[in-house]
């Protein structure tokens, strides 16, 4: 399994500090048997407000940074979280399978659908095999 590196953007740091304080208090409460529920609740409210304010006032560049965030969920992660069933479909057999484009038949409850997404890798080797999420011409044939 690939170990994920926690990567944060400048505007995320105040929120991460609050999250760290909340986790610290929860750990201390469990370890020492103390009641920090009121303080934890206050910090969680402050965190929620800070998240809302931060996301409401992002600059265009910060929005781009967020869209390109290294820890952003990948298509296959979302496939496993959202769909009840997923049957991957592979290339058109004219050239080769493009690992950057994933697609398949999926089901959410009783609704059947087709899913197409691009997939970056989780490691350097995986990124190279998936061409860093950039499709080759055969990937566009798969999506078509």
From TrEMBL:
**Keywords assigned by UniProt, alphabetized:** ATP-binding, Fatty acid biosynthesis, Fatty acid metabolism, Lipid biosynthesis, Lipid metabolism, Nucleotide-binding, Transferase
Lineage per the UniProt record: unclassified sequences, metagenomes, ecological metagenomes
| Name of the molecule in the record | acetyl-CoA carboxytransferase
A GO molecular function assigned to this protein is:
acetyl-CoA carboxylase activity
User: Which biological process terms from the Gene Ontology are attached to this UniProt entry?
Assistant: fatty acid biosynthetic process; malonyl-CoA biosynthetic process
What Gene Ontology terms describe where this protein resides (cellular component)?
A: acetyl-CoA carboxylase complex
The UniProt record lists the keyword Nucleotide-binding? yes
Q: Could you tell me which pathway this protein works in?
A: Lipid metabolism; malonyl-CoA biosynthesis; malonyl-CoA from acetyl-CoA: step 1/1
Stretches assigned to the CoA carboxyltransferase C-terminal domain: 42-144
């Amino acid at each position: 399994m690939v170990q994920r590196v926690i990567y944060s953007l400048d505007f995320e740091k105040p929120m991460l500090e609050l999250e760290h304080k909340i986790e610290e208090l929860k750990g201390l409460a469990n370890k020492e048997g103390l009641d920090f529920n009121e303080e934890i609740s206050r910090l969680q409210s402050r965190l929620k407000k800070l998240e809302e304010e931060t996301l409401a006032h992002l600059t265009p560049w910060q929005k781009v940074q967020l869209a390109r965030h290294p820890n952003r969920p990948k298509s296959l992660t979302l496939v496993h979280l959202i769909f009840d069933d997923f049957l991957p479909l592979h290339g058109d057999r004219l050239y080769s399978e493009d690992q950057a484009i994933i697609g398949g038949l999926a089901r959410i409850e009783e609704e059947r659908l087709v899913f197409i997404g691009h997939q970056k890798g989780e490691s350097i080797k995986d990124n190279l095999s998936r061409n860093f999420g950039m499709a080759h011409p055969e990937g566009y044939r798969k999506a078509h």
